[in-house]
Amino acid sequence: MSETRRDFMKLTGVFGVLAATGLLSTQEALAQQAAWNKAAFDTKSVPDTVKALGGAAASESTDIAITAPDIAENGAVVPVGVVSKIPNTQAVYILVDKNPNALAAGFTLPAGTEANVSTRIKMGQTSNVTALVKADNKFFFANKEVKVTLGGCGG
Amino acid sequence: MPDPMRIRATAQGESVDVRVLMAHEMAGGTTPHYIQTVTVTCNGKVVLSAEWGPAVSKNPYLQFKFAGGKKGDELEVKWVDNKGETRTDKATIG
Q1: Shortest CB distance from B60 goes to which of A24, A110, A120?
Q2: Torsional class of A47: left (φ above 0), alpha (ψ -120 to 50), beta (otherwise)
Q3: How far apart, in whole angstroms, are the C-alpha atoms of residue B87 and residue B60?
Q4: ipTM higher than 0.90?
């Protein structure tokens, strides 16, 4: 009997530590999932993503620069950078037009943070990469085609 | 417990250049497991918040610049994934 109790205490001890270090409480996890824009990440096309983000339509802009390779040998790791020169840029989104879900990443930029972000994304096939910029609550975009020799949706 | 992030924050004139490398599988498909939100704070102020889907590459890389930080200030990066796992790491701006 006492041994069972000791085992039980050991077990709760272990889980207690896990909860404190690696995992969120249920409440916190739920709040976190509510903050993440599921509707936008579920969209299949660029216009649908704009709508899910609260815009009506996006207009093309030459003030957005996309840095990405012309040819990506490995679609699993495609470096993409976006710089926006549009005043009051509030958010930058990176989309891959032909991925199963268009939206790959979004960045919200508080005042003082430059509209200049870089990351690495997966591309299933040759596609346009679209940089979507929200500025003064309006949406703007620019495209760049990236040719993919080996698709990266396996991993 | 997920592996620690590698964070490099460098003061360059008026702005701070931040580069972060996270350890995460970023799995898509039928058993998705990927980072959903990333929050970077400096001196208690949020300087970047990101929302990611599974199309961000494995072991994600992030680079950006912000104004208002200086050498010696502490930068904190926190991510949370779709399973509620989280990790927070700190770095001093150099």
Answers
A1: A120
A2: alpha
A3: 14
A4: yes
Closest CB from A106, A110, A113 relative to B51: A106
Q: Is A74 on the interface with B (CB under 8 A)?
A: no
By CA distance, what is B68's nearest residue in A?
A112
Q: Is B8 on the interface with A (CB under 8 A)?
A: no
Cα A13 to Cα A8, A27, B44: the distances in Å are: 8, 21, 32
pLDDT cut 70: percent of chain B above it: 99
Question: CA torsion, points A92, A98, A101, A104, in degrees to nearest 10?
Answer: -30
Residue A5 exposed, middle or buried by CB count within 10 Å (0-12, 13-18, 19+): exposed
Query: Token digits for A24?
Result: 């969120």
Strand partners, B8: B19
| pLDDT tens sequence across A123-141 | 999 999 999 999 999 999 9
Instruction: Report whether B56 contacts A120 (CB < 8 A).
Output: yes
pLDDT in tens, B56-73: 999 999 999 999 999 999
Query: pLDDT band at A10, cuts 50/70/90?
Result: low
Q: Record the pTM.
A: 0.87
Kindly list the strands in the beta sheet with A64-67, ordered across the sheet, starting from the edge strand earlier in the chain.
Answer: A64-67, A78-84, A113-121, B61-67, B15-21, B6-12
Q: Residue B28 corresponds to which amino acid?
A: G
Residues of A in contact with B63 (CB under 8 A): 81, 117-119
CA distance A139 to chain B (A): 18
The whole-number pLDDT of residue A154 equals 54
Name the 3-class secondary structure at B37: strand
